[in-house]
Amino acid sequence: MKVVVDMNKCQDHGQCVFAAPDVFSFDDAGRLAYVGDPDDALRDEVEEAADVCPLQAIRIEG
Amino acid sequence: MSTPTVRAVRAPVVVAGASMAGLRAAEQLRAAGWDGPVTLVGAEPHMPYNRPPLSKEVLAGKASFESLAFRPRASVADVTWRLGTRVTAADLDRRTVRLDDGDTLPYAGLVIATGMRPRRLTCPGPLAGRHAVRTLDDARGLRAALTRPGARVVVVGAGFIGCEVAATAVALGAAEVTVVDPLPLPMVGPLGELLAAALRKRHENRGVRFALGTGVTAFEGEDHVTGVVLGDGAVLPADVVVESVGSVANTEWLDGNGLDLADGVRTDAHLRAGGRPEVVAVGDVARFPNARYDGVPRRVEHWSIPTDTARHAARVLTARLTGEQHDPDPFAPLPTFWSDQHDFRLQSFGAPALGKADVRVLDGDPDGDVLAGYHRGGRLVGVVALGGPTAAAAAARHRTALLKQPARTA
């Protein structure tokens, strides 16, 4: 599974961090960081993260 | 003698309403294991799209439809979309819905997702020049009006949408922007006085005027609105009026079925309506008890609710239709909302409106970045941050504590 975040859309709401903390996090500067190729076992939480993104900036491929 | 063979055709789950809640319901039906047919019926001609940008980026001309449209999951590639079509009636005993193109659809399960429409003012005066913001077409129409040079704008209603539209209108260069509301402060209903007063100050510092503690009694003008008459007799000159005075549930099509439709569709703790296990309601039309709080059924118009309700309702409905065992806890979402206005954001977790009588500053101060805690019976029930990203991050740190509080039913 491949995860792509449109960083031009991202406004740091952090809802994805709550939904999928294994994949999304904030770095020390408060900017979103994420794992681009998470394990398929995390699909449910990544899908939830994509659902709850207010900007709909998260795309899941494969 | 042979018996004519009747090919068994499975009735679909009909999702009435094809906006965010309808889409999420369809996706969650698939995720829950419903592999039968699904039909979505939507009044708007558009595929489901994200509404929050309508009062901001779309008005500001910064968002195309493509950037608003949801990307449906691959699992719903086979569902039937009936867009530009309204449901006009339902017979819940016969399990059918009627559409405005004359069709009648039988259903195995029904998802009520018809949402809300803007409430409109009924006071006398011309209609032209008066806008509401709910749909993409509404927002495009309002943008065209707001971008005329020298526009004088009156926003009626100082809630989420009113405050966001006022901020966007200032950014677009409107000559005057005035927000009218019978309440003494903007957004005082969801925020309480402390933050509402801070919000008012921020708006005023950025060029928004307020006429508070008064309502609108009439609109002036012949064919097109030229002014707004207030309760105290004052007249605000206006070329553009935005009515953001709440919304009305789209439930007329359900009349005559014995449902409680007093304000949206009353549901049980699992989002089922009218004691019918094959009928669920999702999104802002659902009036559900939240087991996390006091168990009083309420409609919630926050962006997170369509997704939360769809997940719970789809699991309950799918279990019913497939005969699988499913014994979920009562629905108990943690509400969350945000609102972007000017260069600041409001970010909330929990249910601040339940704790407005006991608001404490947890961090910062109301003139800068501030985090307020809302308490009921001494217990923190919600937090709201007002300011920049630091304030929002401070609010998020309380989310876990708000989530861990034991859900309780009244």
From TrEMBL, chain A:
- Is Transport among this UniProt entry's keywords? yes
Q: Which InterPro entries would you find in this protein's record?
A: 3Fe4S_ferredoxin (IPR001080), Fe-S_cluster_ET (IPR051269)
- Highest taxon of the lineage: Bacteria
Tell me, what's a Pfam family for it?
Fer4_13
Query: What SUPFAM superfamilies does UniProt report for this protein, alphabetically?
Result: 4Fe-4S ferredoxins (SSF54862)
Keyword list, A-Z:
3Fe-4S, Electron transport, Iron, Iron-sulfur, Metal-binding, Transport
Q: Enumerate the cofactors the protein uses.
A: [3Fe-4S] cluster
Q: What PANTHER family does the entry give?
A: FERREDOXIN (PTHR36923:SF3)
Q: Please describe what this protein does.
A: Ferredoxins are iron-sulfur proteins that transfer electrons in a wide variety of metabolic reactions.
Protein name listed in UniProt:
Ferredoxin
UniProtKB/TrEMBL annotation, chain B:
Q: Which cofactor does it need?
A: FAD
Q: Which domain of life is it from?
A: Bacteria
Q: Which UniProt keywords apply?
A: FAD, Flavoprotein, Oxidoreductase
Where does the Reductase C-terminal domain start and stop, copy by copy? 337-396
Q: Which Gene3D superfamilies match?
A: 3.30.390.30, FAD/NAD(P)-binding domain
Name the PANTHER family for this protein.
APOPTOSIS-INDUCING FACTOR 1, RIESKE DOMAIN-CONTAINING PROTEIN-RELATED
- The protein's name is FAD/NAD(P)-binding oxidoreductase
